[in-house]
Amino acid sequence: MAKKENQYEAIANLLAADLVAIVRGMPESPTAPGKVKLTREEQRLKYQQMRDNPQAWADIVARHGREGAFLYWKRFSNPNEQTTDGG
To answer: What DSSP state is assigned to residue 31?
Structure first.
């Protein structure tokens, strides 16, 4: 039985080494995900793509709370309305 366990361990070690090599070979992003500043128009387009998606709203609430989700909706639900940030 020990021989079979050693075979599995050897396979696992090879796979782990391959994964490490893949990760090390990946380029690093110059900025963290979600940290790229979007233009006002890009923000509006993103809102339009997610506004009818309940899962996207659940994600917004999970990340920013109910008040944050409400402020996001308020900011982009009426594109003709000016906000205090000049947008």
So the answer is: S
SS3 79: coil
pLDDT tens for the chain, 87 residues long, are 566 678 889 899 999 998 888 888 877 766 666 677 888 888 889 888 888 999 999 999 999 999 999 998 998 887 665 544 444
pTM of the model as a whole: 0.47
- Give the residue extent of every domain in the chain: 2-77
User: Residues 6 or more apart from 61 whose CB is under 8 A from it?
Assistant: 68, 69
Q: Which class for 35: exposed (0-12), middle (13-18), buried (19 or more C-beta within 10 A)?
A: exposed
